């Protein structure tokens, strides 16, 4: 999710930099750093609305670790940033259309997994637990070990949080759980909807392991330190082995990067501007022609939410001199859905420049 061409990547990026600014600041009351972190949090929420818990997670952490004064300053920065950025976007884009796409459509989108909403929520929760089991187990283990290696166990929450800054990322991850689950239960919500929770959980684990390694080295003279390190190595090895199947397809993906679908579609759109419509790859046309056409799933999502796009609306946002419609096999169902708007494109053809693509032209 952090590297794909989708809204997740910049949203997670803005959030991560906001956390990094608070993590590395030397003065708790530095108003400029607080303002920058707040601004980036607002950017993240505007990029993808499921990251709205960022607006609550970071202030909570600041309140618990830095006190009310810093908390009050950060809230002020958050309000200023929110008003400024929202005013800018509302002046650039139509406010009615923004509300329709950000609130109306998602709120009308049906749920998946089960007709029972309780079962659907439980299913989505199980998916999140399954995906987070590896990093969460390591994080819990590191937390316990840090306590066992410490000669002075923290007796206050503020001391514990301040001395273990990875807890900021863990807190962000925890706050992201509700919107991650709600995103997953919506029809069409894929595993990427869980990324706000998992991304910050993995980041917290990374920092916790760094802290654990430092503590283990400083206490290596104690038998307990050596045994804990051995246990951690065994734990990570076992959990990675149990999840190795998830990484088996990485080599195949890397091998195919030079001839990936977006690149093939981009090259064709660049050589034949205004002639081809790629319903499942509109980014290629945007880069090659500078024009944004309908995304197949966007059309489908409108329909299942009760707002079907009219034929007039559809024709206004596809290539003017359209000669062919092309999509990959994995997007077959979506491609066929788009063809309902273009019944005259019923002739299946083969195009040398689009190997492996399903292509239709006018009969």
Structure description:
It is a single chain. The protein is globular and about 75 Å long. The chain has 363 residues and is mainly α. It has 16 helices and four strands. α3 packs antiparallel against α4, α3 packs antiparallel against α8 and α6 packs parallel to α9.
**Residues in helix, %:** 55-70%
Nearest-angstrom radius of gyration? Answer: 25 Å
Sheet-strand content, in percent, reads under 5%
Which shape, going by the Cα principal axes?
globular
Number of helices: 16
Helix/strand layout:
Blueprint: H1 8-24, H2 31-47, H3 54-66, H4 68-92, H5 95-108, H6 117-149, H7 157-163, H8 166-185, H9 195-218, H10 223-242, H11 250-255, H12 261-271, E1 276-277, H13 282-289, H14 296-304, H15 311-315, E2 324-327, H16 332-339, E3 345-349, E4 358-362
Parallel strand pairs: 1-2
Antiparallel strand pairs: 2-4, 3-4
Helix pairs in contact: 1-2, 2-4, 3-4, 3-7, 3-8, 6-8, 6-9, 6-10, 8-9, 12-13, 14-16
Task: Give me a quick take on this structure.
The chain has 363 residues and is mainly alpha-helical.
List keywords for this structure.
mainly alpha, 363 residues, 4-stranded mixed sheet, 16 helices
